[in-house]
Automatic annotation (TrEMBL):
Name listed for the protein in its UniProt record: WW domain
Record organism: Pseudocohnilembus persalinus (Ciliate)
Localization of this protein: Nucleus
Keywords: Coiled coil, Metal-binding, mRNA processing, mRNA splicing, Nucleus, RNA-binding, Spliceosome, Zinc, Zinc-finger
Biological processes per GO annotation: mRNA processing; RNA splicing
A single MF term (Gene Ontology): pre-mRNA binding
Region (Disordered): 1-36, 441-465
């Protein structure tokens, strides 16, 4: 009776589970159910279950002994009970582990999303803050610059990078020994050519992102392991698609991957700024603001101020995402603040000694340190970015550990199944041996009975004679 109840409960549970989870069933669940049914059949061997429609209940048939019973033997019932208890305990443990893992993953995802949201909010300006350039420029144009750049970059990166120059111009920009030693009394460098004076020369080449952007060897063979091409920023790279560095304007996500000790071109940064503020930069602060001088205002007045904002934004926005522009017309200064310091580094090299709309030769250098609040925000952003990276790495490690545990569990199950098979085979052999012994004893009894009957017949025949 107990086995019939177990079978009926098991069948009803399987039906309910199939009805509830029928759209969610996959190969793993089907294979688990098949393994479970196979193990039950092996435990019940050689008994087979059948349903009697007349009595509306299950009965069991043994094909070896041709015996039919309503209930299984007690030893098989005990085995089935132990098997079902182990399965229930394993299922409970697995479900608890899965639920705990889901809860942990949900908490981690929520924490990571909060950190990412805070990063995005801190990287962006407060909507209530009034920017200087918003008073003179179209707000929609300034807000959509990242979207425009990303959409345009996908199209531009489908083609190979072109050669910006036929031959390298290393001779013009090469380093000469003693070239950095400057004599303030004679306004000359300490080199062999005593007549050479430090003078600024107008840039002969300029980067056009729409024309020069394309894929290089860095995109094909050294992905995520290279830096951006310095000569590409100057508009004078003669390598083209054979260049080992990136030929494109850096995006914000790429800027976040740059180490603080190096600039966007891979050059090492220093602890302090140069005295003339024209160097590579300092790793002690995250200066994102460029100072522009030697430009010409188109006209005096409000219209000239507005036109100057449009000119500066048009020339510099193609090299990075601009957050704000502040022009001091009375002093001939203009300050451009970019979203990231790497964008400012790239734009600085692109626009050095270039002309705007009035054929001038502008000077681009680093501005003074940003306000302390902005520096503190950048520091916190870096810490939170590190937290995000660590959280992602931790999640990857936990996933690897979980997969490793699953593999170990699968191997253990295989070992257990092999042991069960061995035990079942041994039991089968024992049962076969017992059956053979029974058959042999039955045959011996039959032979003995036949011999006794023959002797009685002989005795009877002798008596009759």
């Amino acid at each position: 009776m107990e086995t019939t109840q177990i079978n009926q409960e098991q069948n009803t549970q399987d039906k309910d589970q199939n009805q509830d989870n029928s759209p969610k069933m996959d190969k793993n669940t089907n294979s688990q159910q098949n393994n479970k049914s196979e193990q039950l059949l092996k435990i019940m061997f050689p008994w087979q279950s059948f349903y009697d429609e007349q009595f509306e209940r299950y009965y069991y048939f043994n094909p070896i002994t041709e015996e039919s019973v309503w209930d299984l033997p007690n030893n098989i019932i005990d085995k089935i009970d132990k098997f079902l208890q182990n399965e229930q305990e394993n299922n409970i443990d697995i479900q608890q582990n899965i639920q705990q893992q889901k809860n942990i993953n949900e908490q981690k995802q929520a924490q990571q999303q909060e950190i990412i949201d805070s990063l995005v909010q801190r990287e962006e300006f407060d909507p209530t803050e009034i920017k200087n350039m918003d008073r003179y420029l179209d707000i929609e144009k300034t807000e959509n610059q990242e979207k425009y750049y990303d959409e345009n970059l996908i199209h531009l990166m489908k083609r190979p990078a072109r050669k910006q120059a036929d031959a390298p111009k290393n001779a013009d920009v090469a380093y000469t020994q003693g070239g950095l030693d400057y004599n303030i009394w004679y306004n000359k460098q300490q080199t062999e050519n005593r007549e050479k004076v430090i003078t600024r020369e107008r840039a002969t080449t300029r980067l056009d992102p729409d024309l020069d952007t394309g894929y290089t060897k860095a995109d094909l063979y050294e992905k995520f392991s290279s830096t951006f091409c310095f000569h590409f920023a100057r508009g004078q790279c003669c390598e083209g698609e054979q260049c080992k560095y990136y030929h494109r304007v850096p995006s914000f996500h790429e800027c976040l991957q740059i180490d603080n000790s190096r600039d966007i071109f891979g050059r090492p940064r220093f602890a302090t700024q140069r005295d003339d503020m024209r160097g590579i930069g300092s790793f002690m602060n995250e200066t994102r603001t460029l100072m522009i001088t030697d430009f010409k205002l188109p006209r005096i007045g409000a219209e000239g101020q507005k036109l100057m904002y449009e000119i500066i934004y048009r020339h510099f926005s193609m090299y990075g995402q601009i957050e704000d522009i502040n022009i001091k017309g009375s002093k001939g200064w203009a300050f451009i603040r970019f979203r990231h310091r790497c964008m400012a580094e790239f734009a600085k090299e692109c626009m050095m000694n270039q002309a705007l709309d009035n054929n001038e030769m502008i000077m681009v250098k680093w501005a003074a340190d940003d306000d302390k609040n902005q520096i503190e925000i950048d520091r916190r952003n870096k810490e939170e970015q590190q937290m995000v990276r660590e959280a992602i790495e931790k999640k990857i490690r936990e996933q690897e550990i979980l997969e490793h545990n699953e593999r170990i569990q699968a191997e253990r199950e295989k070992v257990i199944q092999e042991k069960l098979r061995q035990q079942e085979n041994e039991k089968k052999q024992q049962e076969v041996q017992e059956n053979l012994e029974k058959f042999a004893s039955i045959l011996d009894q039959i032979d003995n009975q036949g011999g006794e009957q023959g002797e009685q017949e002989e005795d009877n025949s002798n008596k009759d004679q």
